[in-house]
Design brief:
This protein has helices spanning 2-11, 14-29, 32-39, 44-53, 56-72, 75-94, 98-124, 129-160, 163-172, 176-181, 212-239, 244-263, 265-272, 274-291, 298-326, 332-377. With 390 residues, the protein is an all-alpha fold.
């Protein structure tokens, strides 16, 4: 039994281990941002601006970075991203007040997006479809584990020290990522991507394959559901009389659902096909969103939250692998960069839009609108299936 575990661990790419530590540290700081901002006396409106700052620079640079990776490879970019993110996360401890936290979010957000993009690109550079799908599934599972465990650790560290000190402590957790990245062999770009001259039309990526827009739509729908759940479920649960501690447990179970579904992602795709799995997962997530406002029962809300976490969790790695499959070999970084740009744009625009909707429908109406969008959207996300046999 022990030998089997060791053998499985040896088969996991080093980038996946590095990603787990990296995401653990960064994800742990996300709930600290509003808490530390409150310590500084910022308003609720300013907290929203500060949170959006994390995605500000990546929104404009992701596609450029992806093109650069197509030309130069990813190993050095991964290592630099770790150092940049470490520096960004330690800033609130070194530079007190608003300047420190704002610079922290700008720098850490850039480093985080660059690392994730480079990790996706590195794990996608395989000619064999089955190997590529396996690598992306493992990478996605590492991200899910880090995103689940990081915030849990942040709460303990923050209570034991302070929110400001917790930033620096969590930053230390991303340094082991460099230890896993150093042994990597330099990767050579696939193809002969010519250096870009000036700014080209980013929308040209839609012309690479007729299914490309559907791959981006899958990612946008998943982000819409995930971000809006995290933003509005605590408010709804509080309104129906559920305590803060129970809300935290439910959200933790929701995040755990993503870990579970990503673990079984490849088996489900082999059994039912990628398109059917994607469509079904988004459809079931939409139905669960519609049912949330119908009850205040803790057990039922936990089951619905778990269903949403599993449904949205399985779609994200399949969106990445589909994007890679539909991309020209020499343009994978560019297309993944454009995908991340769309994601960051969704994360900026969606909260503002649903904030307006909430003024008319209340929190309950938000879940019905999201559920409706997911159900309608699942009719437009059918994608080509692939042979994943090893």
């Amino acid at each position: 039994m022990f030998k089997q575990v060791v053998n499985k661990c040896r088969r996991v790419p080093l980038v996946a281990y590095a990603t787990g530590f990296f995401v653990f540290g960064v994800a742990g700081t996300r709930p600290l941002v509003p808490l530390y901002s409150i310590d500084l006396g910022t308003s609720v409106e300013e907290v929203g601006v500060l949170v959006a700052t994390f995605a500000l620079i990546p929104l404009s640079l992701a596609m450029f970075l992806g093109k650069k990776m197509d030309q130069t490879g990813t190993r050095s970019i991964l290592l630099v991203s770790v150092l940049v993110t470490f520096a960004g996360l330690t800033l609130p401890y070194v530079l007190e007040g608003r300047p420190g936290i704002y610079l922290s979010q700008l720098i850490a957000g850039t480093g985080f997006t660059t690392f994730i993009l480079a990790g996706q690109k590195r794990m996608s550079d395989s000619v064999a479809v089955s190997t590529r799908e396996r690598n992306i599934a493992i990478l996605s599972l590492s991200v899910a584990l880090g995103a689940m465990l990081g915030p849990l650790a942040a709460g303990v560290i923050g209570d034991a020290t302070s929110n400001k000190a917790a930033f620096a402590i969590l930053a230390l957790f991303i340094l082991p990522s460099a230890c896993f990245l150093l042994p990597l062999a330099p990767d050579r770009p696939i193809g002969t991507g010519a250096p870009s001259r000036g700014f080209s039309n980013p929308l040209k990526v839609f012309g690479y394959n007729r299914f490309m827009a559907r791959a981006f739509l899958i990612s946008s729908l998943i982000l819409l559901g995930r971000d809006m759940y995290v933003a509005y479920f605590p408010l709804y649960a509080h309104n129906v009389g559920i305590s803060a501690s129970i809300i935290g447990v439910i959200i933790g179970i929701h995040n755990g659902g993503g870990v579970i579904s990503r673990y079984f992602a490849l088996k489900l795709v082999r059994a039912y096909g990628k398109s059917r799995v994607v469509v079904t997962s988004i459809l079931l997530s939409g139905l669960a969103f519609l049912m949330i406002p119908l009850t205040g029962n803790v057990l039922l809300l936990t089951l619905m939250s778990l269903a949403i976490g599993m449904g949205l969790g399985i779609g994200q790695p399949l969106s990445i692998s589909t994007t890679v499959t539909l991309s020209p070999a020499a343009k994978v970084g560019e297309v993944l960069g454009f995908r991340l740009t769309c994601n960051r744009l969704t994360q900026v625009v969606t909260p503002l839009s649903f904030g307006v909707i909430a003024t008319f429908t209340g929190v309950m109406g938000i879940f019905w609108v999201i559920g409706g969008i997911l159900i309608v959207g699942c009719t437009r996300v059918s994608i080509p299936n692939e042979d994943l046999s090893p």
